[in-house]
Amino acid sequence: MLKAGVMGAGHLGKIHLKLLQQSDRYDLIGFYDTDSVHGKQLEQELGYKFYDNLDELIEACDMIDVVTPTTYHHDSGKKVLEAGKHLFIEKPITVTVAQAQELITLSRKHNVKGQVGHVERFNDAFRSVHDRIDNPMFIESHRLAEFNPRGTDVSVVLDLMIHDIDAILSVVKSEVKSVSASGVSVISETPDIANARIEFENGCVANLTASRISLKKMRKARFFQRDAYISVDFLTKAVEVVRMKDAPETPGDFDMILQNAEGIKKQIYFDNPDIAATNAILMELETFADAIENDTRPIVNLEDGTRALDVAMQIIENFKQL
After folding, report:
1. What are the b/e assignments for 32-62, b being 16+ CB within 10 Å?
2. pLDDT in tens, 42-98
3. pLDDT, tens digit, for every residue of 191-216?
4. Neighbouring C-alpha atoms within 13 Å toward the C-beta of 70
5. How, if at all, do strands 256-259 and 265-270 pair?
6. Among 89, 150, 183, 288, which is least packed by CB within 10 angstroms?
7. CA distance 101 to 200
8. pTM for the full model?
């Protein structure tokens, strides 16, 4: 079992602590939080060992799970990597691309693994169709959330949209050609509503919308490719896969047939996969254990997190030009 420690014991940090303790892949050593009063209280209430000395926690562990506010990600990650320990770090990887690239350099220098907590990659619905998304040419995503002041320390792009940026980059096998965007600040100092258009070198276009002041929640993405339409509902964990094939010579009574102007007939059919129910956060942590123990590439490595951050920063830069 890998010895694990957690940095940051806020809302998400407590979830990570609980899951690491439950996992049979990790031995939870303890946690560190800058608020020692909160840390000692959590230790008394839930039994996790609180370390008031971060260096001692890092020294006692094989892997550190960084769940601090984003502004501390760079310093926290740097400290972990320089100690030669494996790093799991929540999204976004850092505040700037330069900071993220420094973490990549350190991980290579000290020959340790790094993974970024883009949890939607492990969403049951998205996992069930990820390999079926093949050369999509148009993508549309909507991520709407009710207002929560806990996430307003960063732009809605880094708070919400970056989930969809990472998911899209994982299925579009092409470099980004251009980015355009617009954003509106309603309550926060940074945009609360944003729309972005990403064009890729291979001609694919992705249109992303994110809002954190919506009256209802929505987390959906739709992928259009030559042979299929694939819809993913990240919130309800439901998918819809609609495919087309050459129509049979003698269609059945319930077959859905389309005929174009040239007389070519196609049959529409549903190809929905089975969806296995899992805990996405636990899965991302345990697949990281796999990567460490088997010396393989983490599913969302530091380079992936940096690429998503780079696109997110291009979107934010577009806001400044409006």
Report:
1. bbeeeeebeebbeeeebebbeebeebbeebb
2. 999 999 999 999 999 999 999 999 999 999 999 999 999 999 999 999 999 999 999
3. 899 999 999 999 999 999 999 999 89
4. 20
5. antiparallel
6. 150
7. 22
8. 0.91
